[in-house]
Each structure stands twice: as structure tokens, then as C-alpha cells.
Amino acid sequence: MPELIITKNIDAPGLDTLKGYRKRGGYKSLAKALKEYQPDDILEMVKKSGLRGRGGAGFPTGMKWGFLAKNQPRYLCCNCDESEPGTFKDRMLMEKNPHQLIEGVILTSYACRVSVAFIYVRGELALAGRQIERAIEEAYGAGLIGKNILGSGYDLEVIMHRGAGAYICGEESALMESLEGRRGYPRLKPPFPAAVGLYGGPTVINNCETLSTIPAIVKNGADWYASFGTEKSKGTRVFCLSGHVKKPGNYELPLGTPLRTLIYDEEYGGGILDDKQLKAIIPGGSSTFMLGADKVDTPLDFEAIAAAGSMLGSGGVVVIHEDTCIVGAALRMTEFYRDESCGKCTPCREGTYWLTEIYERLEHGRGKESDIDLLMDICDNISGKSFCPLGDAATSPITSSIKLFREEYEYHVRHGRCMVGDQHAQQETLLAGAQSVHAGAPAKEM
Amino acid sequence: MPEEKKDELVHLTIDDIPVAVPPGTLVWAAAREAGIEVPIYCYHPKMPPLGACRMCFVEIEKMPKPPQTACTTPVSEGMIVHTKTEKVLKARRGTLEFLLINHPLDCPICDKGGECDLQDFTLRHGPGGTRFDQPKRHYQKPIPVSDRVMLDRERCILCQRCTRFSSEISMDNGLVMISRGYKMEVGTAPDHAFDSIFSGNTVEICPVGALTATAYRFKARPWELKHIPSVCNNCSVGCNVRVDVRVDKIMRNMSRQNDAIDDGWLCDRGRWGFEYVNSPQRLRTPMIRRDGQLVAAAWEQAFYTIALRLSEITKKYGASAIGGIGSTRTTNEDAYLFQKLLRQVIGTPHVDHHHGYFPGLRDSMTGKPWMMTNSIAEIEQASHIVLIAADPYQRQPILDLRIKKAMKGGAKIYVVNVNETELDRFAVQKITLPQQGAGAVAKILLSTVVRQEEMKAPDEALRAKLLQEDALIRGHEEMLGSEVTAQLRELAHEIAEARGAIILYDEMATLEAGCEDLAADLQALAVVTGNIDRPGAGVGPLFEDANSLGARDMGLLPDALPGYNPAEDAGMTYAEMLSSLQLKALYVMGANPARHVEKLPDSLKLLIVQDIMLTETAQQADIVLPAVTFAEKDGSMTNIDHHVQAIRQALRPLPGAKADWEIFVEIARHMGIKWNYASSKEILREIAEENPFYAGLDWEELGAQGVRTQEQEVARA
Amino acid sequence: MISEQAKQRMRELAAHYPVARSAVMPALYIAQQEEGYITEAALEAVAEAIGMTVDDVESVATFYTMYYQQPPGKKVIKVCTSISCYLRNCDALVDRFEQRLGIERGETTADGNYTLMTAECLASCGTAPVIQVNDEFVENVTLEMADELVSEWERELSADVGTQFIAPSSDQEISAPRAQ
Ligand SMILES: Cc1cc2nc3c(=O)[nH]c(=O)nc-3n(C[C@H](O)[C@H](O)[C@H](O)COP(=O)(O)O)c2cc1C
Ligand code: SF4
Ligand code: FES
Question: Where does residue B419 fall: left (phi above 0), alpha (psi -120 to 50 degrees), or beta otherwise?
């Protein structure tokens, strides 16, 4: 098993306290950085490490920091709005190791010469929010945040901001609108946040996991970090394994590990639930294209997954086995996008509504033969036409599932029911059996 | 950036048509230059791009992810744009299909039918039919969002124009988006009315029939309406309106965008305040008092009687026993001919106009009027806007929007007022005054600049004068208190250092005790701080009525002839006429002094009132003459920044009523003087010949948007 | 009625952020804590503390699903129904709760004890199916657990009739736009 970087000691008791974190070497990177490194040194280090964003798009982190406009004040937003279906790593990182994130936030703020940093925590994640808030308080108390941090002369404010139920606020510009006290509508780009962001100032925005990785890079060096992973996808990342596997949970693996290892290895997923056949895999959260079972040997890195026809996205790997009706699953995902569309743009707002209506009738045996092509055409009218990527995302489960499983859709139209197994019989067996628990197990409050 | 670079144009081709436009132009606007329609819903040229409706798709070569939205993409050199490729057409059809899935298609009973962008673009760019065959979203049919505005949520396409007007232009955040996604709707807080004085603009810019005006609902179909370009008669801003008329009734006023004046907006007063034109209370026949009663009379009889009575009075008491009071809301031509009748035909020097005891806002040294030295549009270029005893939101509403626009562009606003004003919350500083403190404010501002040696244009005479007034100024400072005085000192410094300060005050403030020097002091302040004669700087009064300035320009003043040529012997002022026992006859045109004085002089033997309604004054008159409104005649008016603008006849005159100038021609004729004016255009020509403020103007030249004349003639301290 | 302390906290928040408006979301939470949901008084208090119009506050409050537009039950049960929980048959859980509580999803029991809602992915897919009860997670929920939970709540709610109302702070279904 490879050395873990950001989930190291994750289940150690007391890790979520300042004392516990410090006991395991926490805030050493910060002390070292403030003493030995200029901001630009850290920027160079992160560039060299090859770290890419863990929020979804996989943009090189150091390069993003380098784009920051020179004017002040600058801001940092840490994106902890985790709401992509199939993704549950940030919640774990916040609940179990909040100080690691705070240290990453301080280091990043220092590197980017930021004076106010915000941690935007998804509203539903109440415990995570409390943990972050408490960690911030502890850090202020220990002089790790505030004026003249550790005697370095560097000042930083950190503010935890709670979301209130809106997936779109995970999109970086909508997150900034929300932080500014508005409805979470995405903003027009350009200008990009690095030029004009929060309160009009240059703004760095990074995902929770991305920033949680920074302390380890500063501590162990860029070359060390870059030694994990592949040529272009460096380091490790936390894969959120869920769905029809025996041992769902969060597993940190070097990028480039094959999907098969994650799903079948005893250390990780342990194989398909009830030893059924694998049917499909959603590799990066519900916004990414489904892959067929034939793609199970694809390495989990940005390039390979893209070559297989999907995206690494948020790292949420959802496994679907043979008994699943794909129409029902796609309906469920489509409803999500309908409910979470911000409503700003026409194709996303009206299109997701219409798509759901069509799915509803397909699911309930009232579908028409023409509905399948209609779904595809509506998706074509949304994809690339919506204001922000949410619209595109809404079409991914649909187009990919129709391409892979068109005959199941046709069966639904012709027979008015699912082609695969009896859903109701299954649910009894499923819910009866206890499920394996891994890193994503409920955290008890300390 | 080197100077010449700025003016360089960007070259691109759109559907193979080459266009050259200034940098920063959006592809949508460039296409319009090329004569190509790119359909839009959410975009509005007066608001920043939103990119929400996804209607304005075009394809741009070398750009990733086609198609692009034309409303959000600025042009660049060498850009190649296609607006009619298959990709573009499909995307537009797609958007229209989406917009129509939940649209009720109740066009036959929709007020917007015939002028609806959804109808029009669907015809030109839409799919032939819809593939949506499921239940539509339903909402309760129109709900009132205020007394004046109704909202039909089923028709709404959620383009956010209206809510963005509310947040970005009027900045009163009254109409907002509620909920999100497919449940999103336009609305307000529960049981809360959208009570903006600018609410009508949301109705006007709604591209569909979602927002409609209570005043216009179900009154007419757009194709039945005649459109006549005119000017709003409600305040001194002079916003341009398009009067929409059906069978000799005004149905509504729409904005007739004039960027120099109204920037495309109207306030609700201007938009809907025309009931008086259609009012059944209008006077329809001349009346003569007989046995204590006003009884209907023929025009000829009225003219005859007037001529007779006036010559009797002249014979008995002399012409100077006759006086005339004109109006600030009639046209320049009416005002001009009124004073000409009084001065040249009747032969009296007593001419003034109604301005509520207003001594006429003029420089006592030159006799020229105080007026805004900057144009309305220049307000946008100011770095500082100082409002002293002025409340444009209440009194010149569309200026309020211009000030907010300036603020968004970075201007700092200072409000100095006794009362709370709407602009307070946008002001970098609000200085609250005691009653009648504005005069003191002006003095302190001026003396601070002079004392602190911050004069850009040093003026020794002024220094000496202020030295003499030292005790007075100290008294002022005591009255205002140390805190306010300190704030004013700081403000004076800001004005002296400003890139461009515009100082505005309400003309009414100059009437208060202690405010006699207000106008002169503020003018001096602007001059010595160099805030005059350069872009984004200026000073001046804000007037009340639509033709406040024109009435004065036309010589409706006791001591000045048209163009402020001094009268040989000054006549009685408004107030003097109303208290003088020498006056035996009074001719009132479009004014209502009886509302402002307890009693008209007992000495009056003849009271002639010319108006559209039976006002308090008309009720006491011996002869009443029915006049027509601005909507029933041609003429010109002069607004707050001296734009001379044409109003055009929209309706046939109300039967029985006549234009003021026509009445004067008749009275002159009955008194033996033949005037040959066939139309008000000819009167304007005469005005232009005699009055240097109007030199060279003629009716044709006024065109659609008026002419701003004679800026340089403004009084100087 | 919003207490003076609550208003004071809102004002402090407004001063805490670089721009006052940023405090509108936390202020709405404070108001909701006091009122149970977003009442007219809540809108007014927030508007005044932050310097916004009530309409503007309403616009923000209705965008986010965790601000209740109607009074919620004492126990707000949110069952995640997104894809990973769906694959682990969360629908059966919803059915079970509907049966046991005698209400449909989106509804509140007549006695005001329970509100049952479905929720979007709760970031707990590895321990699906999952529910939240007044913001606290219960993971790997089986039908038996569901039954036990209901019995536990029944005991709890009948025991402390007089206890203080705990305002939950999240919501999916009942934030649907209010009929005008
Ligand atoms: C609809 C949508 C939802 C998103 N949700 C999240 C999210 O919940 N968390 C996140 O970190 N990034 C999310 N993103 C990606 C962010 O926009 C942004 O790219 C990311 O926070 C950048 O951080 P990174 O470079 O560290 O990945 C979302 C993007 C979109 C379009
Ligand atoms: S009411 Fe009209 S202008 Fe306003 S958003 Fe709806 S469609 Fe647009
Ligand atoms: S969801 Fe709003 S534009 Fe895409």
C-alpha cells in the first residue's frame, strides 16, 4: 500500500484538535515556510510539484496562483462546498483533519500574498462547519492566524462562511457571488477570478483537498510529491468509492492506479456487491460521462480517463452493477440537475425541467419511441449552450447512458418497464445486510 | 495608452460584411452596425451584459466552444463572425423552444401582442412547432406587484431585465428574482409592493407580456396606436417621450431614448401622469361671468369682450393698471407671445410668471439666469457630485438615475440637506442642516476655499468681499455648529481638489430667508475652484417645471425682455401684482395664484384666466378661456440644461379649446393689431431672431432630440 | 420577534465582513434560529441590520434551500436520494418513513413533530443510504434502523413536550416557492 499523504493518520483520535494535529507534525510546514521561504518560493514549489486542482477541472494549482493580478487586496476562497453526487472526501477532511486544511489555507495565502481568506463550507455539512470554525478559533488562539503570524510579520484573517443549500455555489464564481451575499449565479468569464474575483479583487480559489495537500508538499518538497502518480497527473488523490461495491469509502491512491484496483482490490472496494457483474462506472462524480465495464482497466489519471471518454472530475467513483436499470439511474441524476440549476440561463433551467419530464414518463411506462432521440437532441441544445458547466454536466449521464445502453431505453418504451432485475426484490436484500465502513465512516463529535 | 490608439477602430467582418467599431463594442452592437439582427432578450444596452437568455448566439472563427453569445463578446481585430450558420440557427431554435415550453401562448389577449420580442423572434428565428407535449407550469394569472404594475409569471421568460433595472439602474432593489431554477419567478417580498417611482421602465423593457401597466392593460392593440414624438411635461428634465394615441386619447407614454437627457428612462409621473389630458374636467368653451355666474360663451364674444374691457380699463386707469402672469409649463412660443401681447399690444410693463413667489433665479449683476453650467450627460464624468438642498429623486427623478450612474462610474456623492433624501444611502457623506441653512453652507464652502488659499482662479474682489462678511460667516458657523462646519470645510477641500465637481442646488432653496446669496456664492465657488468650463465640472440650480427656464428666456419677467434685455421701466413682480391696489385687470395664463395667496386684490375689475381646467383662480375669473395641453399643439420647451426641444401635436385639440398662442393672435386682432403667425414655427423663428439664447434655431433643427444652445451665455460670478 | 441580541449579532457580522452584504446568509441563519423559519420579522430584521431591502433579502433567502419558507417540524428528516444512495435503495427508506410518519415527502405532520424531506447528495455516499436528522448524520441506515429511529423519536418527543424548540437549518422540499 502506497504511503498516504493527506489521509495519513486520518482516523487517529484527536487529530482534529490543534494538539493532536501538532503532535503529528502539524504546522511545522507553516513555521518552516514563514521562516525560510519567500512567498514566491512556495509558488515555485507548488508549480514544480505538478499538483492539479481536486475540485473538478484539474487545473494546475501553481499556474493558477501565478495568474493572480498584482493589485491588492487579494482574497483566497477555499471551496468546501462539496456537493457533487458521489463525492464525500472534503467532508471527511474537514471533519477529521480540519487543521491540515487551515494550514494549507495559511500557506496558500502567504504564497499568494492574500490578507483575507474564506472557507466556504457547504451548509448541509454542519459538523464539518463546526470543526472548521473550531479549528480557526484554535489557530487564532495559537497565533497561527491573525496579526504577525508566528512573529513573521505576515497578517491573515480567515473567515468560515456557511453555504445554505445550493450545488451551484461550488462553481467558483457562483461561490463568490454567494460570499458577497447574493444569489448564487455564476458570473460572466472573463474576467477570471485571478483578475477580478471576490469584492472585485484578484482571488485564488481552490478545492478543500487541493489545499489540504499543500502542507505535505511544503514539508517534503516538490520532487517528493511529484514522485507519486504519472508523468502528467502527479501525486495522490482521494477517490470516493460508492455504489455497488463491497467496501465503499474514501481511498487515497496515487494517480494512475487502475480503476480495477480501486474497485476489486481487497484493500479497497473489495469487488462488486453480491459478486454481480460490473455494468458501468461513473469515474468523477455524476457530472462526468459514464464508462462501460470494458473500461475497468483504465488508469485513474486525468489523461487516461479523458482518453477513455470521460473525466476524473471530483474523484467520485460510482460503481453500477448489472441489476441496475439505467433509465431509473439517469432519471435520478437528471432530477438533481433540475433541482440544482440556478435558473439563470434558459437551456439549463428549461432543458433540465423538460428532460426530467420525459424521463418520468419513460420510467413510468408512458414513453414514446421518439423520446430517446428527443433526449439526445435536448442535450445537444443544452450542452455548450448553457452559461456555466452545470448545464453541460446535466447532459453527461443522459448522453453517455443512451450511447452505452440504448437498448434498455428502447425496452422501457416498448415494455413499459425495466429490462433488468426486479428493483423491489433487491432492495430488501440490500438494506438487510450491514455495509462495510471505511474512511468515510461517521465521525463522532469530540 | 497613446492618445491616438484610443480612437482607433477595430475591424471585423460579420457575415462577410466589414465593419469598424470602437474597441470594447460587443459583437451584438457591431452586427447592428452592419445591419444584421442578432436576437436578444436578457441583454439591454443600458446594462452590463448578462449572457443568461442564450438567444444571441453567433459563431466566431477561432473561438473555442461554438457558438458564442454576441451580447457578452467584445470585438477584436480581424474577428470573423457568422450569424447564420446551421450551428447558430439550431442553437437559437433550441433556446426558443425552451422558452416556449412553459409559455402560455395567450397572445390573443396579451397586451404585448404585436410588439413582443418572443413573438417576433419566434417568427424569425424559431422552430416551426414544439416537441414539448407535456403539462406546462402554471401560475395564478396576473398578480399585482404594485398598484401600477401587473405580473403574469407564466409569460415571463426570466431574462432578468426588470430585476436588473431595479438593482443596477434605479438601485432600489424592489423587484427581485424569487426561488431558483425551474421554480424561479420575478417578485417581491411577501405582501410587499414594488413601489419604485421608476417602476414603469420595467414594463417598458420587458421583452414579453409578463409585466404590464395597470393603466394600459386591455386598452389598445399596438397596431392601432399612432406614435408621436414629444417631451414630458412633468418636470424640468424634459425626458423624451413617444406619445401613443388611439382615437384622440393618450393611451400611454413610452420612452423615446435621448442619451443626452433621459438615457432612455422615464419616471412613473412622466409615464402615467397624463390623465389630465384625457380628463372630462377639461374646459371646452369660453365662459363669461354674468350676474355672478360663469356662463358659456362663443369665442368671438369672449375676444370681443376682452378687447373692450381692456381698452376701457386702459382709458380709465392707463395701461399700467393691467398685469399678466404666465406659466412655467406652456411652450416658449406661448410665453413669448403672451409677453408680446402684454408689452406691445396692451402696453403694460407688468409681466411675470408663476414661480411661487420666485424672484427669478438670476445674477443680479448681469441679469442673466443662473442655470446648470454642465450638461446632464456630463454628470457622468464628475468625480464629485454635491447636492445642496436638492432632492432630485423627488423633484427631477431622471437626474437621480444619472447621478447613480455617475456613482457606479466612481463619482462620490455628497448630500447636504435638511431632510432625508433617497440618495443619502449612496452618499459618501450626508450633512444634515437646520432649516434654512443652505445659504450658510454656500458661504462657508466659499470662504473656506478662499481662506485656505485653494483658489485655482484667485479673485481679489471676492476675497475682499468675504473679508467684509467675516462676522456674518462666523454667525453662520455658530448656527450650523462645529461638527457640520468641520464637515463643510472638508467638503470645500474636496471640491477644490476634485478632478471635476458638479454642485447642484434646488431653485426653491434660494427662496428661503438667508439664502439670497446661495446661487451667487455657489457659482463663485465653482469658478474659483476651477469647476467650470471643463468636462465633468459645473454648478447650477435644479428647476421645477418643464419650461421654468424657457419662461424666463422668453421675457416673462418684470424687468427683462426676451433674452434678458433689460426692460426700459421695470414692471411689477408676481408678488407685487398680487398685492397691488393699482392693478385693475389681471391676465393669467396657465397659473393658479389663487392657490398661493389668501385673496386676489379687491381692486381687480377684470380677471382673465386661460387654462385647461377650472382652477381656483379660474373660478374667480370674469372671463375663462379654454386652452389645450402640450399634447394638442406644437411648440418648443427649454429644459434644465438648456436643451430646446420640440413637442409635437399628438391629439386634435379638444373641441372648443385653442392653443395659447392662437388665443393671443385673436386678442391682438380684436385690439387692432394684425399678427401673421400661421403656426408656432413662425413664432420660434421670431424668437430665434431676437433672443441670443436661441439664435439660429428653427423648428426643423430641433429635430427628434432637441438642441442644447448657448451654454456659454450662462451667467458668471 | 427577533431579539435585540440577535440583531446585534447580525450587525456585528455585517461589520466583520469586508462588505456588509456578505453577512446576509449568516444573518438569515440567526433569524431562522429564532423564528424557526424565515418570517416577515426575520426578513425585516436582516434587511435592517445589513442595509438591504426586504425584497432583496427575500430574493437571497429563496435561492438557498436551507432557509425554510414554512415552519418545519421538530424533527426534520432528510433522506438523501441522489445517485449513490439510490443505488443503495434509499427509495425504500423514504417509503418506510412515509409509512411510519403518515406523511409524504415534503410534508410536515399535523402535530408539527416531523418534517420528511428528500435531499440531494449529502456527501456521505460511502456510507449510503444516509439520512440527516436536524443536521446530524445517520449513516448506513437499514430499514430496521429506520424503525428504531422512529420509535426513539416518539419516546423523546412524548417525554419532553415542553422542551425547547430546536431549529433545524436545512431544507429541500419545503422551500418551494410560496404561492402568491
Ligand atoms: C456546477 C459546478 C459545481 C462545482 N462544485 C464544486 C465543489 O463542490 N467543490 C469544488 O471544490 N469545486 C467545485 N467546482 C469546481 C470549481 O468551479 C473550481 O474549479 C474549483 O473549486 C477550483 O479548485 P481546484 O483548482 O483546487 O480544483 C464546481 C464546478 C461547477 C461548474
Ligand atoms: S418580467 Fe419580463 S423583463 Fe422581467 S425577467 Fe420576466 S421576462 Fe424579463
Ligand atoms: S446553471 Fe445557471 S447557467 Fe448554468
Answer: beta
Q: Which three cell numbers stand for residue A311?
A: 473525466
What letter does residue B73 receive in the DSSP assignment? -
Domain boundary at B235, B251, B278, which? B278
Could you give the CA distance from residue A382 to residue A377 in angstroms, rounded to a whole number? 9
Distance from CA of C151 to the nearest CA of A (A): 19
Whole-number pLDDT of residue C176: 36
B300 and B449 in a single domain? The answer is no
Going by DSSP bridges, is the β-strand pair A75-80/B240-246 parallel, antiparallel, or unpaired?
A: unpaired
| A183 reaches B (C-beta below 8 A) | yes
Based on the fold, state whether residues B526 and B617 are members of the same structural domain.
no
Amino acid C137 reads: F
Asked whether B57 and B88 are in contact (CB, 8 A), the reply is yes
Using a 6 Å cutoff on CB, does residue A390 contact ligand 1? yes
Q: Please give the distance of CA C101 from its chain centroid, rounded to a whole number.
A: 17
Q: Determine whether B64 is exposed, middle or buried from the number of CB atoms within 10 Å of its CB (0-12, 13-18, 19+).
A: exposed
> Is residue B127 helix, strand or coil?
coil
Confidence of residue B452 (pLDDT cuts 50, 70, 90): confident
Q: What is the pLDDT of residue B499?
A: 96
DSSP state of B381: G
Model pLDDT, residue A434: 38
Beta bridge partners of A282: A318
- List all residues of chain B from 70 to 89 with a beta carbon under 8 Å from chain A: 72
The cell numbers describing B329, all together, are 409649463
Bridging pattern class, strands A203-207 and A75-80: parallel
Q: What is the pLDDT of residues A92-135, one digit of tens each?
A: 999 999 999 999 999 999 999 999 999 999 999 999 999 999 99
> Angle, to 10 degrees, between the axis of helix C4-16 and the axis of helix C24-35?
170
CATH classification at residue B47: 3.10.20.740
Cross-chain CB nearest to C66 (options A165, A340, A438): A165
Q: Are residues B382 and B450 in the same domain?
A: yes
Phi, psi of B512 (to 5 degrees): -70, 155
Residues of B in contact with C54 (CB under 8 A): 189, 192
Residues B551 and B660 in one domain: yes
Beta-carbon contacts of C53 under 8 Å, excluding residues fewer than 6 positions away, are B172, B173, B174, B189, C47
CA B591 – CA B545 distance, rounded (Å)? 12
Q: How far apart are CA A195 and CA A211, in angstroms?
A: 20
Q: Do A86 and C50 touch (CB under 8 A)?
A: no
Ligand 2 site-directed mutation target among B158, B177, B184, B202, most atoms within 8 Å of CB:
B158
Specify if B113 maps to a domain: no
Q: Are residues B597 and B500 in the same domain?
A: no
Domain-ending residue, one of B256, B278, B300 = B278
User: Of how many residues is chain C composed?
Assistant: 180
Bridge partners, B352 (sequence order): B325
- For ligand 3, the distance from its centroid to the CA atom of residue A342, given in whole angstroms, is 5
CATH of the domain at B266: 3.30.70.20
Please report the atom of ligand 3 found closest to the CA of residue A391.
Answer: 4
- Edge to edge, the sheet with strand A116-121 lists A157-162, A116-121, A75-80, A203-207
Does some domain include residue B372? Answer: no
Question: What pTM, to 2 d.p., does this model score?
Answer: 0.93
**Closest ligand by atom to A169 CA:** 1
Q: Does residue B71 share a domain with residue B32?
A: yes
Looking at residues C14-25, what average pLDDT do you find?
97
Same domain, B563 and B582: yes
Q: Are C81 and A419 in contact (CB under 8 A)?
A: no
Give the range of the structural domain holding residue B555, as residue numbers without chain letter: 287-355+547-716
Q: Please answer whether residues B614 and B637 qualify as being in contact, where contact means their C-beta atoms are separated by less than 8 angstroms.
A: no
B293 in the same domain as B272: no
Number of structural domains (chain B) is 4
Q: Which of A126-130, A433-437, B267-271, B600-604 has the lowest mean pLDDT?
A: A433-437
Quickly tell me which residue has 454567494 as its cell: A178
